[in-house]
Write a structure and sequence with these properties.
The complex is a heterodimer of chains A (238) and B (254).
Chain A: E1 3-14, E2 17-28, E3 32-36, H1 43-50, E4 58-63, E5 66-67, H2 73-79, E6 80-83, H3 94-103, H4 111-120, H5 137-150, E7 155-159, H6 167-182, E8 186-190, H7 194-200, E9 203-208, E10 211-217, H8 220-223, H9 227-233
Helix pairs in contact in A: 3-5
Chain B: H1 3-8, H2 11-22, H3 28-55, H4 58-76, H5 86-107, H6 115-146, H7 148-156, H8 161-186, H9 194-201, H10 206-235
Helix pairs in contact in B: 2-3, 4-5, 4-6, 5-6, 5-10, 6-8, 6-10, 7-8, 8-10, 9-10
Classes of the chains: A alpha/beta (238), B mainly alpha (254).
């Protein structure tokens, strides 16, 4: 197993509160790792560390075997893309949002590329001139993923992107993410839906109060002898 | 005007006091403090100005302007407490504005380089600039808090801090400049500016008073734009660290 991202003794302390407590683990390349755990476990912080939106207080993160902090943050963030929970949109049309990653680099996305990006995530091309804020929750999430993928994304970080969606949209997004994986993209997906974690994930990280309780094959969610994993599966780990 | 006639105008202070009492506005203490401060501060400045005008010494004028900048800075900095180095940033903005205004006014011989002109005009420029700075800092802080996700989105997509904060910065600059522009549109129709009215009451030629007022209005447009733009571009960097990350303590939403 080759790791896309490796954490080595990572701790994060913010305003005297320890958010992440000495975590070591790997996110396998080209696989889907689901990040599960109760609220406040530090899952979003893990994604922000991967995207260099945050830096660890202690420890080392490696991206493709090179220390993450040695990368230019701007270059790294274009390769390690992130789709946020609420799918925030900038004011403007669907095209304006798709064009944003290019615009940030002083370039312009062609209309053909924009249509292709929409089709890639299963959005109708006729939405291109719609106001982004007028889209439904599911459409916004798809657009958010399409926008992230405009950059040459190698790792895709997903923060509870299906938590507010209807079952049909959830299925569509899951299919899309599996397709991304088949194209070689490494996926790290925070989800509160255990069924989804098992259905989609190849690997898993279970976190609790800033600690990594268990990591490895997704089957560990059922087979692990770790008492806290069993508690989590019974819904008793708060 | 004599002190006796001035004392009669205190009737204007009694009305808000009565209203405050009748409607339980609990503003009586503030009205009294404001009145006493206005009397003491304005009388003091009146005597100080008389002294400076009599001396005709450039050092006194310079000192007076420096005090104005210091007081304006101390007053405005409370609104931008989370911006590192806000005190020197405000002071620098006010100094730049003063330099621009005086370069044009004195440099082009629009007004003579005497204390009688430099001090009141500096006071208007610095005072307006202070208000603009407070408006800007209030709005900028609110914009950042309200659009934190958007800032984070742009950073996560590989944008620079300047790109991430650009919209909030522009919105705040525009919002702080708008009152000056809007009031200029209705000037003379809705309100007669205090300085112009004062000159007319004191017996000056109304056309001369209008021309001076226009000079002030144009000057205020510069102070409004320069103070918000300068303060904005000096401030936004302090919200991010060298790794191009948001500094969480600066974004109170986190």
């Amino acid at each position: 197993m080759t790791a896309a991202i490796t954490f080595h003794n990572i701790s994060v302390t913010m305003q005297d509160t320890q958010i992440i407590n000495t975590i070591s683990g790997q996110f396998p390349k080209g696989q889907i790792t689901t990040l599960v755990g109760p609220s406040g476990a530090g899952k979003t912080t893990i994604l922000k560390l991967c995207n260099a939106l945050l830096s660890p207080t202690d420890g080392t993160i490696f991206y493709n075997d090179q220390e993450l902090k040695t990368y230019n943050p701007l270059t790294l963030r274009r390769c390690v893309g992130m789709a946020l929970q609420d799918a925030p949109m900038i004011k403007g049309s669907v095209y304006d949002n798709l064009n944003l990653p290019r615009q940030l680099q002083g370039e312009t996305l062609s209309k053909d590329e924009a249509i292709q990006a929409l089709q890639q995530v299963g959005l109708d091309a006729k939405n291109i001139h719609k106001k982004a804020h007028d889209l439904s929750g599911g459409q916004r999430q798809k657009l958010s993923i399409a926008r992230t993928l405009i950059n040459p994304t190698d790792v895709l970080l997903l923060d509870e992107i299906t938590s507010a969606l209807d079952p049909h949209s959830v299925t569509e997004i899951e299919q899309l993410i599996v397709t991304m994986k088949q194209r070689g993209v490494t996926i790290i997906w925070i989800t509160h839906n255990l069924e989804q974690a098992r259905r989609i994930g190849d690997y898993m990280w279970l976190m609790h109060r800033g600690q990594l309780i268990e990591s490895g094959s997704i089957h560990l969610l059922e087979t692990s002898q770790n008492e806290r994993v069993q508690q989590f599966m019974r819904g008793e780990l708060l | 005007m004599t002190f006796t006639t001035l004392a009669i105008t205190l009737a204007f202070v009694c009305i808000p006091l009565v209203l405050s009492k009748a409607l339980n506005l609990q503003l009586g203490k503030d009205v009294i403090i404001a009145t006493i401060r206005a009397i003491v501060q304005l009388l003091a400045i009146g005597y100080v100005l008389q002294l400076i005008f009599d001396q005709q010494n450039v050092v006194f004028s310079f000192l007076m302007v420096a005090i104005m900048i210091a007081v304006a800075t101390l007053n405005a900095r409370k609104k931008g407490a989370q911006i590192n180095g806000i005190t020197w940033k405000l002071a620098l903005s006010l100094c730049v504005i003063e330099a621009i205004v005086m370069s044009v006014l004195v440099g082009f011989h629009i007004v003579p380089a005497t204390a009688q002109y430099i001090i009141p005009l500096s006071g208007m420029a610095i005072g307006n600039s202070m208000v603009m700075s407070i408006l800007f800092l209030n709005r900028f802080t609110a914009e950042i808090e309200a659009h934190e996700q958007e800032v984070e989105l742009i950073l996560s997509l590989g944008g620079t801090p300047k790109q991430a904060i650009h919209r909030q910065l522009i919105t705040s600059i525009k919002a702080s400049m708008l009152p000056t522009i809007e009031s200029q549109k209705t000037i003379g129709l809705v309100q007669l500016p205090g300085m112009m009215s004062g000159q007319i009451i004191a017996g000056a030629d109304p056309v001369q008073a209008v021309m001076f007022q226009l000079l002030v209005q144009f000057m205020l447009l510069t102070t409004a734009s320069v103070s918000s733009v300068l303060l904005g571009f000096l401030s936004y960097r302090t919200l991010f660290n060298q790794k191009l990350q948001i500094i969480p303590e600066k974004f109170t939403g986190q």
